[in-house]
Amino acid sequence: MKKVIPLLVLSAALLSGCGGGGSSDSSSANTGGSNVSNGSGSNTGSNNGGVTGGNTDAGDTTGPSAPGNVIVPDDTDFAEQMLNAVNQARAQEQNCGGEIMPAVPALTWDYDLQEAAFRHSSDMANGGFMSHTGSDNSTPDQRIADTGYSANAWGENVAAGQKNIPAVMAAWMASPGHCKNIMNGNVTQMGAAMVENMDTQYDQYWTQVFARPRS
């Protein structure tokens, strides 16, 4: 039977907070829950006290392992290519859904954030779903905190069905919420992961995690 090619899906969760004088539209973390659609979604809030939920039971803090029938890209090549793609976007002004976002400094790669991203992409690939909420009910800020990373600001982009980094970056940059996460000047570090499971609806499951460490 011929496999039906699904619509590509992506979703963004943004929490932009600060330990100093910054502000945002909401004082609650991840207020809108997860947004899963054929377009995009964005959740906003503030995190003035740092990451919340670090002491919440989020299940296995190491996250689910990748299933045996998945493909995980080589860490070094993937990290370099994804970081370069994000920093190329950040190096110039971007139009995010009609809002002009100025160029912002380049990010550095962080392996704790990569661990959080890999945990979530593996979870989505194992379960064949796409959401900001993990199968263990973990939220993006919990997954970041579970690695030991202490964040003052964070954001997460997820997507499913894109075949490679250029394709998923094009989809994210064309979506206002995801574009704003990538162009967020409040974050300084990132990690990302893609896990592929060809036995599921969307095949490829992508996660980008952005953060600024608490000083």
From TrEMBL:
InterPro entries the UniProt entry points to: CAP_dom, CAP_sf
Gene3D superfamilies, per database record: CAP (3.40.33.10)
Ranges in coiled-coil conformation: none
Biased composition (Low complexity): 24-46, 54-63
Claim: Disulfide bond is one of the keywords in the record: no
Residues in SCP domain copies: 83-210
Keyword check for Aminoacyl-tRNA synthetase: no
Alphabetic keyword roster: Signal
Region (Disordered): 21-73
Signal peptide: 1-21
Pfam family, any one: CAP
Protein's name according to its UniProt entry: SCP domain-containing protein
Protein source organism: Photobacterium aphoticum
